[in-house]
Amino acid sequence: MIYRVALLFSGLTILLAACSREPEVSATPPEEGVEKEATWTMLAPEDAIDPFTYANYNEVRVTNVDLDLKVSFDEKTLTGAAEIDFERLNPEAAILVLDANDLAISNVEAFSNSDWVETAYTMGEDDPVLGSRLEISLPNGAKKVRIAYGTSPDAEGLQWLSPEQTAGKTHPFMFSQFQPMLARSMAPLQDTPAVRMTYSAHIKTPPALIALMSARQDQSGNRDGDYTFKMSQPIPSYLLAIVVGDFGFKAINDHIGVYAEDYILSASAAEFADTPAMEEANAALYGPYRWGRYDMIVLPPSFPFGGMENPRLSFLTPTLIAGDKSLTNVVAHELAHSWSGNLVTNATWRDAWLNEGFTSYVENRVMEALYGESRAVMERALDLETLKRAIAEADRPELTALKMPADLAHPDDAFSQVSYAGGMFFLKFLEERFGREVFDPFIKGYFDHFAFQSITTEDFLAYFEDNLWTDHPDAVTKAEIDAWVFEPGLPDTVQNPQSDAFDKVTAQQSAWLGGGDLAGIETAAWTTHEWLHFINTLPSDLSLDDFTALDGLFSLSTSQNAEIAFAWYMKAIAAGYEPALDPLDAFLMRVGRGKFIYRLYQRLVDQDKREWAEAVYERARPGYHPIAQRRIDAIFAE
Ligand code: BES
Ligand code: ZN
Known about the structure:
Elements: E1 2-3, H1 5-9, H2 14-20, E2 37-38, E3 60-72, E4 77-88, E5 95-100, E6 104-112, E7 115-118, E8 121-123, E9 132-137, E10 144-150, E11 158-161, E12 173-176, E13 196-204, E14 210-213, E15 216-217, E16 226-236, E17 242-245, E18 248-251, E19 256-260, H3 262-271, H4 275-286, E20 294-298, E21 307-308, E22 313-316, H5 329-336, E23 344-346, H6 352-371, H7 373-393, H8 417-434, H9 436-449, E24 453-455, H10 457-469, H11 478-485, H12 500-513, H13 528-536, H14 544-554, H15 562-575, H16 581-590, H17 594-606, H18 610-620, H19 626-637
Parallel strand pairs: 3-13, 19-20, 20-22, 23-24
Antiparallel strand pairs: 1-2, 3-4, 4-10, 5-9, 6-7, 6-10, 8-9, 11-12, 12-17, 13-16, 14-17, 15-16, 18-19, 21-22
The protein binds ligand BES and zinc ion.
């Protein structure tokens, strides 16, 4: 048996305690000197440190940043200054180490003895993953520094779109995407989820444009090119966000609304009309929404994700606008991050499942509350299939347990379906064993207890043990928990989502494949989910005649639902069904969402369509986000 308390609470140095976990976090700390047996060992200090930051955040910790930036579309830069407040955890600390990526620093000052004085700094070499180490000398007593700098036109966290690349065609557009570690390409920061800070910003744009950030906008919202923002709750750096462009706004209720380019504004407001009900369902389960307003912005199609949970302002892909609310689980997901991820944050990317697994679980609970068990089960069943595939395709077994390995090559590797669906199914397993009557209040208490903190998997386990398991020791065994959290592969305790709707689809599909009439399949009442199940389970030896018949009857190659079109193209490429190629070309030119395009290009390359794919990519690449360009370049470099 292992004792977790001795190390943590026996008065070691501030440094050690700060290294091992967030200083404020206390999973019911026992009295000093009292040794309480715990099932799981807390992390050794060196294992709790985020390896993807240069920051010396256990010595000097950033607490607030004030940005004063001018947005230049001609230069594709942000220029100005970042003023950074910090506290010294180690009173002797004489340097502040920040992360930077492609930033041009012109001058650094420190505020010391009530004056700004220039101070020395060094910028380290550029590492392709980490960027550069910015080390700033701290004069005695200095409490803040001011860094004058500019971003690079190639900053990986920002995409600059020309007017032609927007729907309106008149104004340019710029948006950020910082998770997991690209905030450092926008400002010098301690760019790790372990550090939380407040921020404010003064942003100057061309007068015709609007700027929004993941923060409260301070003034009336006049379109005058001069905007100020304040985020007064401490957030990790990856939740900083900025968008500048020409878009409209439509209110959904008094504190929820949507921004989008005009062509899609009404459609977006209609598609997301259930967001208030989602917020209510989420709050009823897990406590109040703590961020004031909740707005969404529908970005240009090059946005590389389905959604990004920037606080107060989720970023969304236009591919969600299907016309029938069938893809709004992504909104439920980004909104759910307001609890899991934004309120309680993974301290390192090794613990990404605390963000994404919890969020996928909450998302599914909210979908169930709004639309019923049948839809929630279908969504879980689709997720389970993708989870199994992710486990089968994992580069190494260590990437298939929830707690990611210490030697993760890149934080992106932590964001597979293992963290998402794996985390959700783990929580489903716990929910089933403990029962919702005790599990729901437990999760609510967890969000409350760790609110505005960054924590590790081990912190979760300690809290789970003290606040749930101890009272219900027979509900689960340690071996069952360990299989989910620390051991590779899919545990045999995974719940099997039983969908009657999918069973009916399968039965009809079998009847057709067994010689029945295709037109006899009753598809009229199928939802997107049933279509996805039908397409995903088409047999790999389906004849080209059958592809032609399906396409003829259901126009799948030109489906306006991006999920359905994607699922169909994946099958069509594998089968060599050529009539899908022109519509696929158009899809790849139009859509920049990574979840679709990475897998489509990969499949094309795997299926001897490299030349065709390369030709499309050559045309499409300039419109893709830098993050997507990097990923797809790697596919063609293989
Ligand atoms: N936080 C993620 C997006 C993300 C993850 C960006 C890792 C950068 C690195 C966001 O909440 C998300 O998970 N989006 C999903 C949608 C969700 C319903 C699975 C997406 O983009 O598809
Ligand atoms: Zn997410």
